């Protein structure tokens, strides 16, 4: 009797397991489908439009567009070393020139968060180069937004501090000295610590760079060029200065920086608002009129964007961030035809920015 009962149970389980079951129908995620279609469309538009810029100008450099962590476009073209024909790739390290200023600004803001300084402090309190009577009222904030009146160390102020705008490398080099004073560490150590903390594995400064894949810089064009000597060490020279223009980076590292900075992962949300707030206006010789915050430029019209250009001899660059869509547009190069002027060197960058502005406006 027990055997029959056991057999019957096994047959029942076998029959039940052999029956076909209808698959459970998952609900359609219309938003995900729509978002995917938009991304595909954006990728095609960016590819068509930016490729035309590469072709028109025979652009030697790297360009990438990211929407948050999704890559919409990337292209490397030309040589990082014209002598041995080393091609630019995703690992190529470029001089980013004055894009460096936002990194120096963040180092100052981090010291502020630790209570080691106040933005309204007189800069002369921390920087001996500013301890002369004419400079005594310059504040740290005025150095950050270029309203100090300072041009070069030792020269007369161009205007009363706080009453105008003059873009000053020495103003940012003074900020570098302030970072050293209040932290008790060299500026390079502070910068390397920040880069590491942010996850920028291939970035450094021109003073301490020991890595590989550095894009040698050139003046000229793809057919005829002359190398800029002593790069990247020359970025530490008096006429430039590491805090003003001495950071080296890659496309991917700058994307990492943008995402971390504007999401509040490096400095606090309240501090980020100070960094991004328009505190003065700049007449840029190439980009035109824009607002200026603390080491960052901005366009507060549609589309809202935060950006900074950079130029040292042979290396024009531009880093743009659109906060509404979390989109980064990064343009790095290692050659400039200086005989045609800076405006010609930045023509590809401007065209790509125009493309990005238009596409951002139709989002």
Outline:
It is built from eleven helices and 16 strands. With 363 residues, the protein is of the alpha+beta class. Strands 2-1-15-14-13-12-11-10 form an eight-stranded antiparallel sheet, with helices on both faces. Strands 5-9-6 form a three-stranded antiparallel sheet.
Question: How do the strands and helices of this protein lay out in sequence?
Answer:
Elements: H1 2-18, H2 30-57, E1 61-67, E2 70-77, E3 79-81, E4 86-87, E5 94-95, H3 100-113, H4 140-144, H5 169-183, H6 187-198, E6 204-205, E7 218-220, E8 225-227, H7 242-245, E9 247-249, H8 251-262, H9 269-276, E10 280-284, E11 288-292, E12 297-299, E13 305-312, E14 315-322, E15 327-333, E16 335-336, H10 342-345, H11 347-361
Parallel strand pairs: 7-16
Antiparallel strand pairs: 1-2, 1-15, 3-4, 5-9, 6-9, 7-8, 10-11, 11-12, 12-13, 13-14, 14-15
Helix pairs in contact: 2-11, 3-5
Tags for this model:
single chain, 363 residues, alpha+beta, eight-stranded antiparallel beta sheet, three-stranded antiparallel beta sheet, 37% helix, 20% strand, globular, disordered N terminus
Number of helices: 11
Helix and strand pattern:
HHEEEEEHHHHEEEHEHHEEEEEEEHH
Describe the sheet with the most strands.
8 strands, antiparallel
- Helix vs. strand class: alpha+beta
Average pLDDT over all residues: 92
Helix fraction by DSSP (H/I, runs of at least 4) = 25-40%
What's the number of extended β-strand segments?
A: 16
Radius of gyration, in Å, reads 26 Å
Can you tell me the residue ranges where pLDDT is under 50 for at least 5 consecutive residues? Answer: 1-21
Order of strands side by side in the largest beta sheet? 2-1-15-14-13-12-11-10
Distance between the termini: 75 Å
Shape: globular
The fraction of residues assigned to DSSP E strands is: 15-25%
